[in-house]
Amino acid sequence: MANEDNLKKGKRISEEVAREYQAKSAASRKKNNAERKLIKDRILERMGEDDWDTMIDKLIERATEDTKSFEVLRDTIGQKPKDSVEIQGDNIEIKIHNAD
């Protein structure tokens, strides 16, 4: 059972280390976003209108048998369920409802 004696004590980091970490994180996010944008742009320039129509038709066709295809369609049209957790006193309640 957890108590004060067996819990690990967190180390406080200096403001300088925190700023350095934030700068590295920001640079990493910027690099990753640039890479994702490059990939997206390349895919879009290689796919024509007919390709998109074919993909959408096949996705709709597969959604009747394939759960993942159904989820992709559902999420794309904005019907993805939203998970929420409510904590009141000793009770924890997990609710899943549509994000309308």
Question: What does this 3D model show about the protein?
Answer:
With 100 residues, the protein is of the alpha+beta class. The protein folds into two domains: 15-46; 49-100, no CATH class. The chain has three helices and two strands. It has a two-stranded antiparallel ribbon with strand order 1-2. Helix 2 crosses helix 3. The model has no long low-confidence stretch (mean pLDDT 82).
Number of helices: 3
Distance between the termini: 42 Å
Following the backbone from N to C, one meets helices and strands in this order, namely HHHEE
Strand content: 15-25%
Outline the secondary-structure elements.
Elements: H1 15-46, H2 49-63, H3 67-76, E1 81-88, E2 91-98
Antiparallel strand pairs: 1-2
Structure summarized in a few sentences:
With 100 residues, this protein is α+β, with helices and mostly antiparallel strands. The protein folds into two domains: 32 residues; 52 residues, no CATH class. The chain has three helices and two strands.
What structural keywords apply?
single chain; about 100 residues; alpha+beta; two-stranded antiparallel sheet; 3 helices; 2 strands
